[in-house]
Amino acid sequence: xxxxxxxxxxxxxxxxxxxxxxxxxxxxxxxxxxxxxxxxxxxxxxxxxxxxxxxxxxxxxxxxxxxxxxxxxxxxxxxxxxxxxxxxxxxxxxxxxxxxxxxxxxxxxxxxxxxxxxxxxxxxxxxxxxxxxxxxxxxxxxxxxxxxxxxxxxxxxxxxxxxxxxxxxxxxxxxxxxxxxxxxxxxxxxxxxxxxxxxxxxxxxxxxxxxxxxxxxxxxxx
Length: 222
Known about the structure:
222 residues, globular, mainly alpha
């Protein structure tokens, strides 16, 4: 059950303030909440099945120490990703026009939106060193409940969740898990591996700093 609750908690946090919640809120204004949630559940069920399969394959190829160390680095990366935030692009908004059924529309939109997203990558990372079934079920439930929360609060308050505060809190938790994973996995690894890890974190921080400066520089040029 530990893997289930870990996956549930990490994916629930990853979804807070994520573009998937924006999609859920947007679609829930057009369609019934239960249709939106059914589409989210179906898409998540399928995409996380793929994720745990990929994670299981990685787990078979790498020693546990390396998996923990790399997973720690990945979670730190997810922390920076969470801080940066996501936005909906035109492809994710326009793909809904291809389907007449609201259920199929929501399912396809969420499936496309989650491919390569940090929620999918978080599930791959968790499945690399945890049993596949509890990771699959926990991550699916965590995403569905997180998006259900967004829909409920959005309908009740008529406003978005306090996105920035939630992003910062979730990012700090990702950073904590990431540092712990690096420490646990890297105890027996060489100093050279740690040096590469530190440089990777520095690169993530640099890319994050550039990403948050870019919109400001665009505004100043306008």
